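Repro case for the chain-ordering regression, as requested:
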Amino acid sequence: MSLLRAWITLVWLSFRRLLWSGSTLMVLLPIAACTLFILRWRFRLEGGSFESFNAFSLFLMFAFASFVVPICAVAYGTASIGGDREDRTLLFLLVRPVPRPLVFFAKFFATLPLALGLVMGAFWLYCQLAGEIGALAYSLYLPAIFYMTIAYVSLFHFFAVSFRHSTIIALIYALFIEIVLGNLPGIVKRVAINYYGRSMMYAAGVPEGLERPDAQWFEPISATTSAAALAGITLVALLVALVVFQRREYTDLT
Amino acid sequence: MFLTFDHVTKFYGPVIGVNNVSCRIGPGITGLFGANGAGKSTLMKLASGQLRPSQGTVAVGDRRAWSTEAKRHFGYSPDINSFYEEMTGREFIYVMARLYGLAKADARARTEEVLREVGMIDRAGRRLAGCSHGMRQRVKLGQALINDPPILLLDEPLSGIDPGGRREISRLLLEQGEKGKTILISSHILVETENLADSVLIIARGRIVASGTLVEIRALLEDRPLTVEIVSDDARQLAALLVAEPDVRGIELRPDSLLIRTRNPGRFFSRFNDVVASNQVSVVKLQTLDGGADAVFNYLQQGPR
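-- result from build under test --
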């Protein structure tokens, strides 16, 4: 009972500190920029037509899923443990009688609602602003966005427990590995979470009129395989992060 | 409850942090002295379960210090000056109390109790970001006391506190020591810790080079002469009497005093009393110049000559 109370305290503490942190500002900026972009763009939309749906889907894929989602995940995923680590306040948690795996999961479960809330909220907002095609896109792409967000958050938790300056490393990963490697021809792109997310989006969108990508550049895999890959990345990242966090001696805290 | 280091060695890659340290720290206040890089912080981190020993064991009671269960039995005040800056001192200590699983009401009551103990009750509503170094030290001490642990590990607890505050904190620590708690204080403020600690551990180059009371340690350093200043109305006569003493290794005659360098302070003082009494020489003042913690510490840092 007392352990549960301690754990809930830690979840609430982490949630509250993340919510009122610079991370929230950091993610609100790209979300607001995309909102303005859609508002401006909507004047050119012809609701429900093939081209508009295609264009909106590409916007969701390349601006939202490839940029906003990883940025949100970096902001909260690395800040939850990485922020405490950089501020050296993690020490106050590690000397309490809360098992390290529970500390890790408290951080993860404090992060997840924030990251998911912001990403899903922004996704819903964009789809609402886009009108009819937005409603269609929302129903089609929701699972892909959901899986991607969780995978990114898990991966960035792994970065946070493993590297001292995890935010910088995660940003480099999100902006370089994900965007550059995720768009290279061949199978190199399979190292990117983005690839699986986009595969899921293509699998859902193509039957509704989304233009199939040039196979030479991007050969999507099936939605089921992509979802399984994202779920696998999530589980492996969490498991490895948990083991690292459990065993790691954080010598940089004092 | 005892804090036990049993043949503990800690490596940082190829660098050795502490080297085959064995000691048992029991109830009362123990001072841990050491220069920067001597291994003092490593020892504190091992004791507070932040580090695992590469060899040997560190135990809090009968539990390994790294284990979660051991963390119920000690309070740790770190040397760092980092907090959740947006919180007030009261909020911070309350949250730490909650992390021990205390119910809200109990955590609130305990927080107020601890704030009173560390002298922060009237300033606890201030945000930590705006608190002075001394206030932050008190909050750190408060969070270490929050679970009323049998073992307290305090890294530089008096640093940055004003003289009045030091007296208060020292009194608080003495009270905690009298309650039978095991308190390990790592400090550079040797003189103050000297007055506070029942015993000391001196660490140099990763090894415990001395342990015990300062008097015991000083007595062990037989090859290190102790300098004694004696102010006497008849310094010249006293010098003539003392020069024949086997434990006197040198005498420096000054206009109104003598500086005696002695090899064995215990035996010298015993003989000194006899010499003074039998020859009826008046002694105005007698003081040891290098018998304090600083001098002992410096001797041990230098190693045998």
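Ordering looks correct now. DSSP finds nine helices and no strands in chain A.
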